[in-house]
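Deliverable D4.2, example record:
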Amino acid sequence: MQTFCRALLILLTANSVFVLSAFAVDTTFGAIPEPEPFSTAQEWWKKDHEARQLLESGDLTQAKVAFEAAVKIAEKNTNTDPGLVNSLAGLALLEHKSGHKFESERLYELAMRYEEGFAGANSEKFAAFLPDLAWLYQWHGNSNQAELLYKRAIATIASKNQEDDPKLCQFLLHYKAFLTQCGRTSEAEKIAVQLRRIDSKIKTVR
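Output generated by the structure prediction step:
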């Protein structure tokens, strides 16, 4: 986590705010490395991984087939997280790229309901999925709802860790990118100040 934070903090300077694309702040939509050790309960991952490769190559039709297969496998094995939640999140991204705004939001919101039942609405695991849903809302023009989710994710992580914990970095970077894209540069700079403060603490610990 500290390495991730430091790598992204090089984008920050005292007097500038960079315009970042959504994917520059590490959106994943449920993508994870191959589980180790691999078991039959994780068979969903093979189809999910296949779907993401197809999506990256632009084959949306076959990617959808693979994502839906991953969802069915995860459901059959009662594998909620990782599994069902991750594949639904990936399918939501596919529907977004296919131009299906409402279906993409519906699928990601469904994934979040499963995650809420699995981990709890106030858990760090639940909070970790919020920024990607926020980006969906932002891409679809619902900035108010997006901002609520960024703030909720930050508040959840902050409530469970010490002040200015490095775990906040990825959530603050998402929110900073959002503020920048909305033209709210002074507010984005306040987030940049907090990120630099966290960076200083990391250097002190080292």
